[in-house]
């Protein structure tokens, strides 16, 4: 069988490459990316994961931080059967303070509906008010939604965009008053 031509070519040393920079670049690429900015700023690359976390007041193994008490048949009060969690010196308490402050901030509500869904629901309400059976028979019901499915879409629109829904309902009522 023939051999691959390039496999036995002599390897040459590349004098133009800086091996130290290459090693540093490789190490940086292999290191995991820490998403949390507070932990990333306090991280020391020369320490292990467990040492870094204990310096910040965090734990790598929750079983070690809160040990399980061993059950005994006859537990005599005052005996040393209860194990207390080891108290480590927290060298970087500002990390925990930043994490607690960030966790206490209220979460942003990101629920939303597509503009097509909003237009569909508004059209159905404008044409049929609360008659979901008529909405299901409407020719614009392209996906052939059942009355229950349309009701759920209207409820979702009402819960996700309450201000917009109330303004829309007022405009629909105003149009009904003007037309009659």
How would you describe the overall organization of this protein?
With 180 residues, this protein is mainly α. The chain is 52% helix and 0% strand. It has 9 helices and no strands. The protein has helices at 19-30, 37-42, 49-56, 62-65, 93-104, 115-128, 132-137, 147-160, 162-179. Helix 6 (115-128) packs across helix 8. The radius of gyration is 33 Å and the shape is extended. The mean pLDDT is 86.
Could you give a quick summary of the protein structure above?
With 180 residues, this protein is mostly helical. Helix content is 52%, strand content 0%.
Low-pLDDT residue spans: none
Helical residues, percent: 40-55%
Strand content: under 5%
By DSSP (H or I, 4+ residues per run), the number of helices equals: 9
Shape: extended
Write down the overall mean pLDDT: 86
Radius of gyration: 33 Å
- How far apart lie the N and C ends? 93 Å
Order of helices and strands: HHHHHHHHH
Derived from helix and strand composition plus strand pairing, the structural class reads mainly alpha
Query: How many distinct beta strands?
Result: 0
Mind describing the biggest β-sheet?
none
Feature tags:
single chain, 180 residues, mainly alpha, 9 helices, 0% strand, extended
